[in-house]
Amino acid sequence: MHKLEDNRAWLLVVPVFALVAFNAVIPLMTVVNYSLQDIFGPGQRVFIGVEWFREVLRDLTIQASFLRQVAFSALVLAIQIPLGIAIALLLPRVGWKSSLAIILIAIPLLVPFNVVGTIWQVYARPDIGFLGRGVNAIGIDYNYTASAVSAWITLLLMDTWHWTPLVILLAFAGLCSIPEPYYQAARIDGASRWAVFRHIELPKLRGVLTIAILLRFMDSFMIYTEPFVVTGGGPGSSTTFLSVRLVNMAVGQFDLGPAAAFSLIYFLVILLFSYVFYTILKMNEGEP
Amino acid sequence: MAEITISGLRHSYDGDLSDPSRLALKGIDHVWRDGGAYALLGPSGCGKSSMLNIISGLIRPTAGRILFDGRDVTDLRPEERNIAQVFQFPVLYDTMTVQENLAFPLRNRKIAPAAIARRVAEVAEMLDLGPLLKRRASRLGAAEKQKISLGRGLVREDVAAILFDEPLTVIDPQVKFDLRRKLKLVHETLKLTLVYVTHDQSEALTFADQVVVMSDGEVVQAGTPEELYERPAHAFVGRFIGSPGMNFLPCRFEEGEIRFTGGRLSAPGLRRLAGQEGLSLGLRPQALQPATAPTGVEAEMMGLEDRGHYRIADVAMGAVRLKMRLAEGVTAPQGRFPVAFRPASTLVFAGDRLVGDLADAQA
Fold first, then answer.
1. Cβ of B88 and A181 within 8 Å?
2. How far is the C-alpha of A21 from the C-alpha of B265, rounded, in Å?
3. B205 touches B238 (CB < 8 A)
């Protein structure tokens, strides 16, 4: 076939370029711009190269926040993914009970982030909160404003309450799409419940679990609102996650240069981790 | 190997037997002879898959018993019944190799690894899966996948019967023939009782020694392909089998004759039908032929359909339209023409049930 060449065709993609530019490239480049300069005031700026990046990477509090963040995301995934699958397996697949269960389970997903934080902030208070008072009443010392362990437990509980429903819904949808003959064949083959899960359900859930893991990782790695509302990053800096630290730096201290460098590194880390997860999960994919 | 006896089988998916019209299976008694190749034929929704799932134990019937060689298995679970079942779509364990797939039912039964390896090799050999054993099952073609599904049933040495639920639906037409031959070969080698569910009559007729025709939750006829074709016991079988199906011509019996719009035929032997309502003549398209001399029956040519090596004439006899298969070399008639009936192939139905044919009626 004869191929037409006409450079005017580029004009047709200009709108898309413009949209992407205003939507993504220009804001991002602004941040890049800040990250490479030391800004003293309007009109007073010095180009300093990668100095802010060096400083951010060397900052011990940021390193500590990063490790905290990795630990938090790892715990979130380790708790919520198996729990979500387990609950999805227990749900009835058809009928009004199924619909009712799904509606009830989905409710936490509809609560705004800062409301979730406020709910738990009150719920877990050792002096007036139902949970906090209850736990203390049975003799366990629990106070999220005083103990780092209590603070972490509170945040993990809250995040699990808030986001496990997402994993449940995805896993449930995956389970519902498995055709009945798979279960019938497994019964004829004499497969145990575990074998059915291991060899039929889990492989068929692979696609939705990839999505669930990526979403849960990205969200938990960027968590800000809930720790900000519940613990404010404390006690001490025990719940100062990356975004809490970043906001302190950018808005609290108004250090725009380091904050911009921090943001870019933060973004690249999430991108890298997500890519690694995706690659691992797509490896040995069953279907061609 | 087993003889499968079904007695008094009734099934309702909501467990309520009080309304017979809503039953999925409405009272079935049937014996599947040991080693027989059966096709279970019927339109979608007639209950054939329910029947199959009841034999394999996936469904527990609301009422009735299932016996394997006289032993009551109604309450046994599928894995205790030694049944191999192949479904419409290939069912495989995606993460496993072909070998692991075949070994899976044996592993679940805690059989020694050496015995598993030997059985898997035997079955793979029989189904020509040998070269594929190390491959991932999920990457194979539909025909191979169905063979693996079958193989998983066959690895168990005590298999009593193989049940197929429309196993060739997703197979390409060219491969279908090979696979069907392979299935027949396996059946002949192992002498297993084989039940093959299909709604495709040509598949049923070429595959089975015995065809069981179901309609609306009931077995309407069981017989050899020839019997079903030549002497359908029920009008449904006549219409369902054959392409085009049997013609039905409403008629009355009066004064020693069968009378219908368009003509009359002498049939003194059918006097017992005198005055009965709901009579009809059942005629295969090739039982009707244009005659050269007047026969007392006339039809009008409405159209001709060329089907390659034969032609189907669409003819009108009064208000009734009939299909007539013209023999090779016969010139297609035009306008009104006399029609000849082959007496032995002219069946008489009363209320949809076969009551006789014109050959013995005229004798």
1. yes
2. 89
3. no
Number of inter-chain CB pairs under 8 A, A vs B:
61
Is the Cβ–Cβ distance between B144 and B152 less than 8 Å? no
pLDDT of residue A170: 93
Measured between alpha carbons, how far is B320 from B281 in angstroms, rounded to an integer?
12
**CATH number of the domain bearing residue B157:** 3.40.50.300
Task: Give B68-115 pLDDT, tens digit per residue.
Answer: 888 888 888 888 888 888 888 888 888 888 888 888 888 888 888 888
Number of independent structural domains in chain B: 2
Chain A: residue whose CA lies nearest to B78: A188
Q: Which domain holds residue B251?
A: 243-362
| Structure confidence at residue A173 as a pLDDT band (50, 70, 90) | very high
Identify the CA nearest to B333 among candidates B287, B292, B294, B285. B292
Residue B90 and residue B180 in one domain: yes
Instruction: Please state whether the peptide bond connecting residue A165 to the residue before it is cis, i.e. omega within 30 degrees of 0.
Output: no
Name all contacts of B108-112 with Cβ < 8 Å and 24+ positions apart. B108/A189, B108/A190, B108/A191, B108/A192, B108/A195, B108/B79, B109/A190, B109/B156
- B238 lies in some domain: no
DSSP per residue, A90-133: HS-SSSHHHHHHHHHHHGGGGS-HHHHHHHHHHHT-TTT-HHHH
Residues B260 and B211 in one domain: no
CATH number at residue B300: 2.40.50.140
Dihedral (Cα; A101, A105, A110, A114), 10-degree rounding: 160
Q: Chain A residues with CB inside 8 Å of B84's CB? A: 188
Q: B136, A195: Cβ pair inside 8 Å? A: no
- How far apart (Å, rounded) are the C-alpha atoms in residues B104 and B152? 7
Looking at B179, B213, B233, the residue that finishes a domain is: B233
Which neighbouring-strand residues pair with B218? B215
Which H or E element spans position B204?
helix B201-207
- Whether A184 and B152 lie within 8 Å, measured CB to CB: no
**pLDDT higher than 60, residue A134:** yes
The maximal CA–CA distance of chain B, rounded, in angstroms, is 78
Does the distance separating the beta carbons of B108 and A189 come in below 8 Å? yes
Amino acid at B56: S
Are B92 and B157 found together in one domain?
Answer: yes
The CATH number of the domain where A162 resides is what? 1.10.3720.10
Same domain, B78 and B186: yes
Residues B111 and B215 in one domain: yes
Res. A175 pLDDT band, cuts 50 70 90: very high
Length of chain B: 363
